[in-house]
Structure formats: C-alpha cells, structure tokens
C-alpha cells in the first residue's frame, strides 16, 4: 500500500475545509476541522494499540471476549490517549446520523474526561455553535466525518513519521491566509519565527516561554532549533500562555501532533493573570519568544505582580499595552551574568518613538542596559497589519555579552523581502543577513549601526531605526557634463568595480577612453539589446559562472555520500548543518555571490526538500520515488490541485516520451482553440450589442442563421431540390423535371413552379450556400478540436498507468540515481536564480549608462531645432506663416 504523502495529507485536510467554506469563514470553522482531525488521529492510534493488545491477550489463550475486555482497560494506554467508545471513529462513522453536532461534542468531552493531559483542551470546540443565523446541519457534519474516513492517520501510513505535525502546521497557515486580518491573532509567518529563534538561539536544558503563544509556533520551532543543532529537544522546557481559548486549544493539539505532549501551555490573560507561578512568584525563563497582540488596551486596576512594571505604566486607553507586555517579559527572565535570560519579541514601530510613559519605559530599558538590539522588518510580513513591525531583543540585567555594554544595535532590514501579491515574505538569505548582522554586532553601512547610550539619551531615547541606520539608496548619479557632451564618467564606472569584478566582467569590453574623466561606448555597439548580449557572452562573465558551477559540482560530489547514507544514519539534522556550512565554504571563495546569497540558496533548497529527505530517511530512495508518484497521481485526480502535476520533476525523467506526446497534444488543442477564437471575432453580419460588441460568437451566429434559413424555407428548399436533383451520372433524379421530361410528361406546370421557387427562395438558398462556405473552416476546426481533445484525454487517462509502470521498473540503484539527480537539479536551480539576478544587475548598470549619456543634450537640442525648421517649412507651404 502506498504511503500517504505530505501533499496528499495537506490536500485532504484542506478538502475538509472546502466542505465548510461558504457556510462560514475560516476564522469560524477552523476549530471544527482541528477537532475532527484530532478525534480521527486519537481514534486511529487507539485502535491500532487496541488491536495489538487483543492479539497479545489471544496469544495467551484468552478468548476474543476476554481479550477485548482487557483491551478496554486504560492501564494499557500509557503512551497514547485512551479513547472511550463514544469517541471512537467507528462509532462516529457508522452510528452517528442524527444530532451529529451534539454527538461530536459528546465525543470530545468523553475523550477529554478520560485523559488528564487533555483537560480543558477540547471543550472550546462546539459543533452545535450557531454561526450567523444557523448552525452546521447534520448533512455537513456527516460529510466531514465521511471525508476524514478516507485515510487512516497512523505513523505507519505516512511517508515519514512527523508528517501529521507538518500537515497541521500547513493547515494553520492556510487558515491564517484565508482569515486575513484575523489570521494574525493566532499565526506568525514561519520565516519570521525561524529568524527570531535563530536570534534567541535556545539551547538544550533551557526554559523557553511565549506569553502570547498563539498556535505554538515559537515553541515548536525552538524545539526544532535544538534538534537541528544536535541537542535533545526533550530536555527543553516549553511554556506558553494564550488568552483566546479556541486558539489555546489549537496550540495544545498542535503540540501533541508534533510529539510534544508535555509542553506547559496555559489559557488566560498574561498581563491580567500570569499563569506560570511557582511558590507564589513568577517562574523564570532563559528565553522569551513572542509576537504579542499589537496596540491593545489594558486595565492597571488589580494587575497582579505589579513589580513586573518597574519602568511605569502605559496609558490604559489609546491601545498602548505593547510595552507593558515587554516589561512582563523582562520581569520573568532568569538572571545571572552572561547566562542570563533573553527576550526576542515583535513590536509595532510606535513603541520606538512615542512620548510620555512609553518614552520613560524606553529610558528605563536603556539606563538598565537591557535593550540589546532593535531590528526593523519589511512591511506587510504579518497577517492582520500591512505596517512594518520591528523585533526588540532585550537581555536580563547584567547579562549582555562582553563588548555590548552601554550600546544598542540597530538593524534596518525593511528592504529585506520578497514581494508577494497579498503579502511579503522573508526568505532564507534575508534571515541569514539579519542574524549575521546581529551576531557580528558592528556597523554595516546602510544596514546596521551600533549606537551608544549617550547618543540615545541625546536623542531623548527616540529609537526610530532610520535615525541611526538609514538604508535609503544613494541618489542616481548624474554628470551634467556627460549629459551635455556625452561620455560615461569614470567615477561611476569605478563605483561599480566590485559588482563587475564579482561577475568577472571588464567594462572596458564595452568602453573606450575619451579623456582623463570620461569613457565612450565602443562605436560598434547598437543599444541595450546589444549591451545585454555582449555582457552575457563575455568570456570573463562565462568563466566566472563556470567557476561557480564547477565549485558546485565538486561540492555535490563530496557531499553526495552523506545524502546516500541518510537511510542508514538517520542523521538528518547533522546533514543539514554539514550541508549549510560546507556549501558556503565551497562557493563563497569563487566571489560571484556573497555569503548571504549562497546561504540563501542552500537554505531555501533545504526548506523545499526537507520532507523529501525525511521520506528518504524513513523509506529509502525507492520510498521517495513512490511518494512522488503518489503525489502526482493524487494531483491528477484532484481538480482543485494547485499547479500542473505533469510539471513534476519526476515525470520528465520517467516518461519523457509520453510527456512529449501530451505536450504536443496540448499544443494542438491550444492552436485549434486560438484558430476558433480568431474565427469567433466575427464578420460584418454578426449581431451586435448596444456598444458594438458581438452578442454571441460569430461561429454560433452563422450556425444559428443557417438553421433559421433552413427552417423558414424548409418546404421550398425541399421542393426546389426535388425538381432539380440529378443522379451521379448526370441524369435527372426521380421526380425531377428532367426525369419527368424523359418519361414523356408535360412539365410546363413544374417549370412554372420552378421559376416561382427560384424567384422566391433562390436568394435564401444562395445566401445559405455562401454561409455554408464561410462556416466550413469553423466546422473543420471544431471537429479537429474535438478529436485533439479526445486524444489528449486518452493520453491523460493512460498517463497514470504508464507512470506506475515506469516506477515499477525502477530498481534501487536507479531510484537512488533519480532522487540524487533531482535533488541536485533543484539546488542548482536555486543557485542559478541568484546568478541570473547578479548578471542582470551588471546588465542594468551598463544599460543605465547608455540611457543616461549615449544621447547628449546637444544632440537632443539639434533634433529639436531640425524638427522646428521642418515644421516651419510645412507651415509656410500651407500659407499659415510668412
């Protein structure tokens, strides 16, 4: 049986959401999907364990009834949840048909009651809740149950063990995306979370705390960070608090499905009721990582542990609770010199410069040397707000690393983004640049600045990032003399020396010296297209790109054995560390790409293939190929699938001939569709609407016109044909005038009738004949299109069988070669994307000089004067001027 792939499970879960979409929005129905998923997972795991117990008991010569009785004892389920009969999936699927919502609520309650580890987790989910004016009907809930019955959710059914946790994270992200602004209440984009975790660098043995934990992403990523760096995440204490009960429930389930059942997550208001208390005092933590709700009101009345706020209280109105949250975070840090705790939190920019109480709190942070760094992020990274946010890094009092005392690092990373249609994204190379700047803690022109407390005090503790680290690009240089007289300023060429040298390009291949201050473009050059071709074909450019490609190949050859050994070593995180480190060491010395671009390429690649590598670790190379085939086949069956399954990287390698046939068939369908579309633009006779546009397609108009003509003159056409019809030999057909005449009949009446018919319906007949001639190409194209579509459908229908047959012929050695080839090609593509971008920057620079200086002002003025003289001449000829 094929293993369930991540793409399959993701689509399966989102398919469940599709059942409810339209009845309510994502923010309203997400708990139903999560609750149903959790019930199904718990039940499947329980049933598998129950079957094991029954088999064990029967092996001890107990009867089936005795074995089942023992299997219903809770004591046998120490490592999983005990699922009572009312919550078992077989009951929900086969017996729950009426009052389904109530039955599901009872199932959740029974599951929670029988398992102390689920206390309070599931009662937030209410399948009978009224949304708008109605609640979910039994029919919809039954559809959900039937949908979740399609797949068993056991680790043995997955292509790698933690697949369910990965799919759950995907679903949370999809819900956040669908919910728009409301998505920000429970989800921080994972790239931002990864950056913050790298900044905080949690270690094995630490306590990590998120006072506004949302869906739990900060804590899960902290555990993954420890694992990635060779530590044991089970020796990491994870603590969180979330005010929204529904979101808290989601986070608890998220932790359980990620294999972290012992995370200490509490439900409640962190400011008004901090839940992590020990011995009457707030617990202390080594790392605090969080994205608290922006700009909320709060009430100072009755706040417990007011010693948390030594730097003052923000106004209760005006939505300024942000720095109250930060003070709480600082107050729970573990103290103790360099080993003291650290805060890494997202904040709105307003906390950096607003006056009043917030200014006093900032002053307190700085005077006590708590503030370590202020990092400005790009706009529109977060759900719920398009404004740019920042990350504050603070340290427990007295715990700043040596050399950072009395200073604050400002990083202006608001230009580090990949633009998206609805949201911007932080890519691995952006994360690498930010984290590297923080770790270096030094000035980086246009990006980072280390500022003394004295300077901050002189600016009245205003922490506006651009005041200290201005990343505004320098203005485009313009040389007045060059604009007037032409030439490329040598100073501008010298300013781009690093860009050109990195790509092996000598600008003198395009320029010649004019004088001591200017170059000219070589006279044989013809403009931007020529410049681009010259740069791309330059021997130095090609040589540098080849050097990078050779370095890449050498690196891959050296590291490939580590990937090959993964099914035996299971050392996924060690592999990650080695690949990321060695990739930079091998490629950065070439000099074409900087360390951030190189690190970004391999980190992006890793993020895209990590689940394939997990599948490799669990099922070997043949398991990876099988998973890819399963993904392709599933996508083919799924009309709502994103992308084109035939574009999958495996298809071209397994069934290239069939893919070529399909592409040719698709091209033929496209050609015929275009031909019909061109015909449909219509002739002069097609019906038009009030704006002159065709009411219907021209082809259909012709068909309809012919049909009307035939219906209107049906009898006349038939009689006319009868009187004039001939046989293939040229003789008159039976009943025709010629036939009657041959039989000796008097045809005067028939001839008169024929003349009358020709006068009456002849014009219509001739028009119809003309229309038939005109529509002939349309009919031919329609017929050919139908045949082409049939052929394409046949190819698609046979694709699955051909692909599975091709997979069956792949042996272990071939599977290994296939997977390694695809992994290498994926990484090479990431690297090439950055090489192309760098080359385009070189081209854009020289094309910019051509655009600015190739045509001088004097030449423009000369053309203007010549045009004026020609116009004056025309006006004189016309007599308008003398």
Describe the fold and architecture.
- The strands form four sheets. Strands 5-4-3-8-9-11-10-12-13 form a nine-stranded mixed sheet, sandwiched between helices. A three-stranded antiparallel sheet has the order 14-16-15.
- With 882 residues, it is of the alpha/beta class.
- The protein contains 32 helices and 16 strands.
- The longest helix has 47 residues, at 762-808.
- Helix 23 packs across helix 30.
Quick recap of the structure?
The protein has 882 residues and is α/β, with parallel strands linked by helices. The protein is 55% helix and 7% strand.
**Helical fraction:** 55-70%
Name the shape in a single word.
globular
**Content-based structural category:** alpha/beta
Quote the distance from N terminus to C terminus: 95 Å
Round the Cα radius of gyration to an integer and report it: 37 Å
Biggest sheet record = 9 strands, mixed
Strand content: 5-15%
Number of helices: 32
Strand order of the largest sheet: 5-4-3-8-9-11-10-12-13
Secondary structure: number of strands: 16
Which segments are poorly predicted (pLDDT under 50) over 5 or more consecutive residues? 686-695
**Overall pLDDT, averaged?**
89
């Amino acid at each position: 049986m094929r293993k369930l792939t991540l793409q399959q499970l993701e689509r399966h879960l989102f398919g469940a959401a599709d059942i409810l979409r339209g009845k309510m929005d994502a923010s309203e129905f997400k708990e139903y999907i999560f609750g149903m998923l959790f019930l199904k997972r718990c039940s499947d795991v329980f049933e598998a364990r129950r079957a094991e117990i029954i088999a064990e008991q029967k092996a001890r010569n107990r009867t089936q009834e005795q074995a089942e009785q023992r299997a219903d004892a809770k004591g046998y389920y120490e490592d999983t949840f005990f699922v009572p009969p009312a919550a078992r999936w077989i009951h929900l699927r086969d017996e729950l048909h009426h009052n389904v919502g109530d039955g599901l609520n009872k199932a959740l309650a029974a599951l929670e009651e029988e398992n102390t580890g689920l206390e309070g987790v599931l009662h937030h989910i209410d399948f009978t809740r009224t949304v708008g004016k109605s609640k979910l009907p039994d029919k919809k809930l039954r559809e959900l149950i039937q949908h979740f019955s399609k797949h068993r959710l056991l680790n043995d059914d997955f292509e790698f063990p933690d697949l369910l946790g990965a799919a759950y994270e995907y679903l949370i992200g999809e819900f956040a995306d669908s919910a728009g602004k409301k998505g920000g209440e429970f989800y921080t984009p994972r790239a931002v979370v990864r950056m913050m975790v790298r900044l905080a660098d949690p270690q094995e043995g630490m306590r990590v705390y998120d006072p506004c934990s949302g869906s739990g992403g900060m804590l899960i990523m902290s555990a993954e960070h420890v694992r990635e760096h060779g530590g044991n995440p089970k020796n990491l204490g994870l603590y969180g608090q979330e005010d929204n009960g529904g979101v808290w429930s989601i986070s608890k389930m998220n932790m359980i499905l990620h294999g972290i059942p012992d995370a200490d997550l509490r439900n409640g208001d962190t400011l008004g009721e901090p839940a992590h208390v020990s011995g009457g005092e707030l617990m202390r933590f080594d790392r605090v990582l969080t994205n608290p709700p922006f700009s909320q009101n709060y009430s100072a009345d009755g706040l417990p542990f007011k010693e948390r706020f030594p730097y003052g209280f923000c106004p209760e109105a005006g939505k300024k609770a942000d720095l109250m949250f930060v003070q709480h975070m600082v107050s729970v840090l573990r103290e103790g010199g360099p080993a003291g705790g650290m805060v890494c939190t997202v904040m709105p920019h307003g906390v950096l410069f607003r006056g009043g109480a917030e200014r006093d709190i900032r002053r307190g942070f700085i005077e006590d040397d708590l503030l370590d760094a202020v990092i400005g992020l790009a706009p529109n990274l977060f759900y719920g707000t398009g404004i740019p946010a920042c990350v504050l890094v603070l340290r427990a009092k007295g715990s700043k690393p040596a050399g950072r005392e009395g200073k604050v690092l400002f990083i202006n990373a608001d230009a580090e983004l990949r633009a998206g249609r609805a949201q911007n994204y932080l890519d691995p190379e952006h994360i690498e640049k930010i984290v590297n700047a923080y770790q270096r803690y030094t000035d980086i022109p246009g990006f980072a600045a280390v500022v003394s407390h004295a300077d901050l005090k002189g600016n009245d503790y205003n922490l506006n990032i651009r005041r200290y680290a201005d990343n505004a690009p320098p203005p485009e240089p313009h040389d007045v003399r060059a604009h007037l007289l032409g030439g490329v300023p040598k100073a501008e060429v010298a300013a781009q020396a690093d860009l050109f040298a990195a790509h092996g390009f000598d600008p003198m291949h395009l320029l010649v010296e004019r004088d001591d201050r200017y170059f000219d473009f070589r006279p044989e050059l013809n403009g931007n297209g020529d410049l681009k071709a010259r740069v791309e074909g330059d021997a130095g450019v090609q040589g540098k790109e080849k050097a990078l490609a050779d370095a890449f190949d050498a690196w891959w050859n050296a590291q490939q054995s580590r990937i090959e050994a993964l099914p035996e070593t299971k050392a996924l995180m060690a592999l990650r560390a080695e690949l990321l480190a060695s990739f930079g060491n091998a490629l950065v010395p070439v000099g074409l790409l900087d360390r951030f671009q190189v690190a970004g390429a391999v980190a992006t690649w890793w993020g895209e293939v990590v689940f394939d590598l997990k599948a490799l670790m669990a099922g070997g190379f043949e398991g990876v190929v099988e998973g890819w085939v399963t993904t392709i086949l599933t996508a083919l069956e799924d009309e709502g699938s994103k992308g084109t399954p035939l574009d999958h990287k495996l298809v071209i390698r397994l069934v290239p001939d069939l893919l070529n046939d399909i592409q040719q068939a698709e091209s033929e369908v496209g050609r015929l569709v275009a031909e019909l579309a061109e015909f449909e633009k219509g002739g002069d006779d097609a019906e038009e609407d009030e704006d002159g546009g065709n009411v219907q397609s021209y082809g259909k108009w012709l068909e309809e016109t012919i049909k009307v003509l035939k219906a209107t003159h049906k009898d006349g056409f038939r009689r006319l044909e009868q009187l004039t019809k001939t046989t293939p030999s040229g003789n008159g057909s039976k009943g025709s005038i010629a036939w009657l005449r041959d039989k000796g009949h008097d045809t005067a009446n028939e001839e008169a009738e024929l003349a009358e018919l020709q006068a009456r319906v002849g014009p219509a007949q001739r028009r119809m004949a003309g229309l038939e001639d005109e529509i002939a190409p349309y009919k031919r194209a329609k017929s050919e299109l139908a045949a082409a579509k049939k052929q394409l459908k046949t190819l698609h229908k046979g694709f699955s069988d051909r692909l599975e047959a091709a997979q069956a012929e792949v042996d272990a050695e071939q599977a290994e070669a296939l997977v390694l080839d695809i992994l290498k090609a994926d990484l090479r593509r990431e690297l090439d994307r950055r090489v192309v971008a760098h080359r385009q920057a070189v081209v854009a620079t020289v094309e910019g000089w051509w655009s600015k200086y190739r045509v001088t002002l004097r030449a423009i003025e000369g053309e203007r004067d010549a045009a004026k003289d020609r116009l004056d001449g025309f006006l004189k000829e016309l007599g308008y001027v003398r």
